[in-house]
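Predict structure. Chain length: 216.
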Amino acid sequence: MATKVVDLVYWRKLRRTGVVFTGLVMSLASLFQLSAITVISHICLGVMAVTFTLRLYYKLLELLRWNPGVHPFESYLNHDSSLTDRETVMLVEEVVLMIAFALTEIKRLIFIESVIDSIKFVLLLYLLTYVGVFTSGLTLVITAVIVVFSIPLLYKKNKMRLRRMVRAVKAFVKKIKDLFLSLYHKVRPSSAPEPATKPAPAPAAAPAPKQKAKAK
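Prediction complete.
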């Protein structure tokens, strides 16, 4: 599944990606005027109109003996899309882990386990209030779909130019950083020199013992 999504996003199969991209954008755009149930029903009716037409056409060819009775969608019907027990367990475990992780993070942010992370979360919520005033969630979803399908294609076509721009930006940031570091080292007051340590006085020599006067 991940490989198929990557193929769609990178436009490796132009016809399939074009159909998926156009269908997604048109379906999401139609939600501005119609309800989700109406849009889904119309999409299903359109698909079934095509499949019914092809099925009747192949049936007519079969009656005229121009077709050996091949079903037009036999490959789709024979495709095994069922999940094994192991795949089902793995899928359920992944979903449960994602839900548990999301709940843990929300609990950690709301009950202020980390003050910095909670402040960032509050700022994000505050910005989202302004985003909600100027746009809707559906507009953001459509924009996200367009960005997901456009950025990889633009990067693929302008890879070398973008890499040169990234290198130039990194070099500029490095120059600014080095400039600030040099200014900081120049402005920073130099530490006072440590007083020279006086050499410790040499210990006094012990007095020589007096010799006893010899008796005459």
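Summary: The chain has eight helices and no strands.
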